[in-house]
Automatic annotation (TrEMBL):
The chain crosses the membrane at residues 265-287, 299-319, 331-348, 369-389, 395-416. It is found in: Membrane. It comes from Monosporascus ibericus. The lineage of its organism: Eukaryota, Fungi, Dikarya, Ascomycota, Pezizomycotina. Its main location: membrane. This is Cytochrome b561 domain-containing protein. Residues 451-466 have a biased composition (Acidic residues). It comes from the Eukaryota. SMART domains: B561, DoH. Gene3D superfamilies: 1.20.120.1770, Cellobiose dehydrogenase, cytochrome domain (2.60.40.1210). Residues 69-187 form the DOMON domain. Residues 267-386 form the Cytochrome b561 domain. Keywords: Electron transport, Membrane, Signal, Transmembrane, Transmembrane helix, Transport.
Amino acid sequence: MTWTKLPLAGIIFHLLAIAITEPVQYCRFGHPDGEIDFCMGIIMHRNSTTDSHDLYLSMTVARSSALGWTAIGTGGEMAGSLMFIVYGDPKSGESPILSIRTADGHHQPRLVTPEDMGGADLRVLQADWMPAGSGAGLVQRSASPPAGPSGADYIAKLSVVCYACPRWPAAPIDALSPSQPWIWAWNDNQELDVFSFDAALAMHKHHAGNGGWGNFYVDMARSTSDAARRPSLPPLRPGVAQLGTSNTPIGSAGYLSSLRTKPLVVLHGCVMGAAFLFLFPLGVLLMRSGRANAFKLHWMFQLVSTAVMAIGVISGTVMSRERGFSTTHQWLGLFVALAVPVQGILGWRHHLAFIQIWRRTWISHVHIWMGRLVILVGWGNVLSGMILVGHGTAGLAGMSSLITSEAIALCMWLWIASRRAVSAPKGKADSGPATAWKRPGAEPYFAIEGSVDEDSDEDRGDIEKS
């Protein structure tokens, strides 16, 4: 291709494409706070020989000791990710280890083999320790270098080129994606016995965010160039946390892509959120609505809620089989999954006993208090699930506000219902064919809030209207 053969519009478009192409960058500056600290930059280059794109990656990792490891990887999860894992002893005089691995699931990552690459190829161009206070181009090793601005003593500087990288057959690598998912993970306290490329790595912490792992998204299209000459390695701009990257999916296309990347996570979160934020609380409100068929609506609605929850339990169980069962979120979910069926059985037994002896038994009180506990644990587990999948502070604050508002509204509704029952004229609740089966002196059927005098005649209006 020569410039003389291109029309003027084509020349302008080509120059514009070169002008707007720039490296993208994602960094986390957490070393002063004992958190993960790394930077990565990417340039994608169209290779006319392979008719594919080459990925040029620069990466730095701040370290003060030989403990632990730091990793980034393509895709939204470990399974199928092309992972770049950095570890080593900066004081040993040896280069840092850049171990390139993949995993079939949430298991020990294994070294990538040529057969895994699907036609792509990898070359490590640089792997060196630098004193944290040195210039970007200075590569030297010192026994006691000055601490850099981040408080780190050393910086591991690494660079890799992945030729024809979109041919990686596992987690898709799309050179034209405006929101390519990536993952990061780290362990800050493992003492490795030997610094080999296949060293066994201890598990990262389960907590998302700075705790142990997280996601970020890269505008790969922004970094893509089709220039004839190969690009230089992407520079890392000091102090820049995000350039063409984000902690959340970029744009509407990015959100749709993230849904497709983690369908089980999305399904689990949506159905559990619907069950505990809306369906189960609405079933409680219906029980205290004062309607003639309140009890019937209550048990029917809670049955539907339980069925919806069962979908979430099944999807959560499938994910737990892949990732292991070890987080607080999973244990709380197990409690809820077992408690809800027990809660239903207790409600049924309460109903049978109440229509025979006209008073509440210990089963009634267990049913009431277990219902309260299940909803509270369900709300808490919605938040812990959001933390586990890496939602940011804004999302957690919004959900916490929603739950708090819902709790206040639910308590107010129950309080108003109890006051309404107390102030109702005597005998009004016992009129009509719908309540003809009630007995004088019967206790209220369900007093969810437990604030009404159960022995008062005024509370008889709370007896089940069947």
